[in-house]
Amino acid sequence: MAITAGVVAVQGDVSEHAEAVIEAAASHGEAAEVIEIRESGLVGECDVLLMPGGESTTISRLIHREGIASEIREHVAAGKPVLATCAGLIVAANDAGDDRIETLDLLDIRVQRNAFGRQKDSFEAPLDVDGLDDPFHAVFIRAPVISEVGDAEILATWEDRPVAVRDGPVVGTSFHPELTGDHRIHDLAFFD
Question: Which of 20, 24, 34, 160 is the most buried (most CB within 10 A)?
């Protein structure tokens, strides 16, 4: 039986996340069926959810307008896992540091949007991530910084700043694990 993975597809790296979760499931001898979520009524069918990067104000506006936000909260309340990356991390936070973003309050963190710099300041770096044996090659693109951490567990830091956290069934990253061809972050979020 396949797991059903929902990718919140209002914006961002939808196909890359779909491919990564399929590979992560296969590494555990499981199949994954991917649903692209652009409207309400689909989240309840999902075993796992992915919230990709993109533009956080747009993502926030669309998931609330389409009725997806409350379904994501119900998914987490049921103990089902979520992986939120880059802008997805911002939307999943308790505090986005920006009043234009209505957050989901899934991660007990405060973030600063684009704190690692603009597009031209994008970079790649090897990260030591709790739960992974070898460094993860992370891709940071207009990445947010996690400026404060409450009850969330820090999984990785870069230059003494948290860049990956776990809070219950939710894993959030400042970077884009779907762009690497390495599915270990998806594995960590959904199968560990």
Answer: 20
Taking the C-alpha atoms of residue 144 and residue 94, their distance in angstroms, rounded to an integer, is 14
Return the HEC string of 21-43: HHHHHHCCCCCEEEEEECCCCCH
Q: Are 189 and 164 in contact (CB under 8 A)?
A: no
pTM of the entire predicted model: 0.95
Identify the active-site residue in 86, 124, 153, 186: 86
Domain range summary for the chain, segments of one domain joined by +: 3-191
Catalytic residue selected from 16, 17, 178, 183: 178
83-134 per-position pLDDT tens digit: 999 999 999 999 998 899 999 999 999 998 766 655 655 789 999 999 999 9
Maximal CA-CA distance, the chain: 44
CB 47 within 8 A of CB 79: no
Phi, psi (deg, nearest 5) at residue 76? -70, -40
Helix (H, G, I), strand (E, B) or coil at 4: strand
178 is catalytic: yes
Q: Please tell me the CATH code under which domain 3-191 is placed.
A: 3.40.50.880
Choosing from 17, 75, 176, 186, the catalytic residue is 176
Orientation angle between helical segments 56-65 and 68-77, nearest 10 degrees: 90
